[in-house]
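Weekly structure sync - notes
Attendees: PM, LS, DV (DV joined late)
Agenda: review two folding runs queued last week.

Item 1: First target. Sequence and structure tokens pasted below for the record.
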Amino acid sequence: MNIMKGNRFLTFFALSAVVLAMASCRSAREVVYMQDSYIEDIQKITNFQDIKIKPGDMLSIFVSHKEEKLAALFNPQGSTPSGASTSLGQRLSGYTVDMEGNIDFPIVGRIKVAGLTRSELSTLIRNKLDEDGLLKGAVVTVAYQNFNISVLGEVNHPGKFTVESDRVSLLDALAMAGDLTIYGRRDSVMVIRENEGQRQVMFNNLLSKDVLNSPSFYLQQNDVVYVKPNRIKAQQSGINQNNNVGVWLSAASLLTTVMMLIFK
């Protein structure tokens, strides 16, 4: 009799180990990024595009020259070069791109800037100053004042973030927001983008390395990233984020059933 009971206990613990292992594997498949990547898996970057200036963008344009008084004629009062700290008053002295894609530049007049990169606009202004005999050999620095991205949903620190670089990826944005919570869906991360009067919604599967080739992997100004809650969070919104309760409840339920069958 004792031998039979001992065998039942061994069977119970063996099944327990199998159930917990299955639950652990299932959890890993749901949270590990780019699971199909391999060692030395090298991919050529083909989906990165330089950020283009759009209507509504706020630009900081600073002209510098050995003749500081002449250069000052082309700089809004209180403006500073890119990289220097700016107050609210200094930020307001920048240039807002109008809905037709133009800015009004001192002395030069209206300039079409929409569709250009920062580097292209810098070259354009420098050439205009040189060709018109206004200021030869000037250095023109262009920077965004309102390059922001928003990250919402199942992340640890949702919010709106200011980006210093023109090159920011979806993973960079999630890192700024403290990564996904355990309840965030990694297979369907949404990027909402507005461009030329149109709104586009794109989905990214972080579980696959194919996300690296997504057209929304590299973000643009004012993109919104939204991480949807998974099924467990949607059903049990009050669950403590530090415990994957859904998995453990399922495992406990299965173990209870097994125990009843063994000791019946």
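Item 2: Second target, run right after the first with the same settings.
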Amino acid sequence: MKGCHEIEIRNNRCVYKLAFERNLSVITGASATGKTTLVNLIRNYDQYGASSGISVRCDKRCMVLDNNAWKLVLENTHDSIVFIDEGRSFISTPEFAGAVKNSDNYYVIITRENLFNLPISVEAIYGLHGRKYFNLKKTYNSLYRIYPEQTQVNSTTQIIT
């Protein structure tokens, strides 16, 4: 998979608008910002479809990886966006890092831990913004970069002769 993939996930209480450009991204941040709610919405939609009351708009399949048979699941998953919630011990193993490297999926890992085995770019580490509109009783969530893009300084070199 290549390029930017936009995802819109919604139910009657919240909306998530996300975009991922890299095959490996991390969502991190404080408790109660909506990270686990995001994973639960994707899991429910993947299991029950439209009858779950959740809608997912994306050009790729979105799924959640959260069981002990992760190797088998990844071997049979292609061209998808795979979400992994925090607390999964396999994400810090070299074996998982190898599986990610040889995969055609995008991975979105929700964690507050350091993942030393995975080549994560600082440009792919996000947090969640949540905005509540009380008159609508709905929460709108979007990503923000933890490490914002740095401004590039143009430097010139003078040669004195």
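Discussion on item 2: The beta strands are 5-10, 14-20, 24-27, 55-57, 61-64, 80-84, 106-110, 125-133, 138-145.
Action: LS to circulate a short write-up before next sync.
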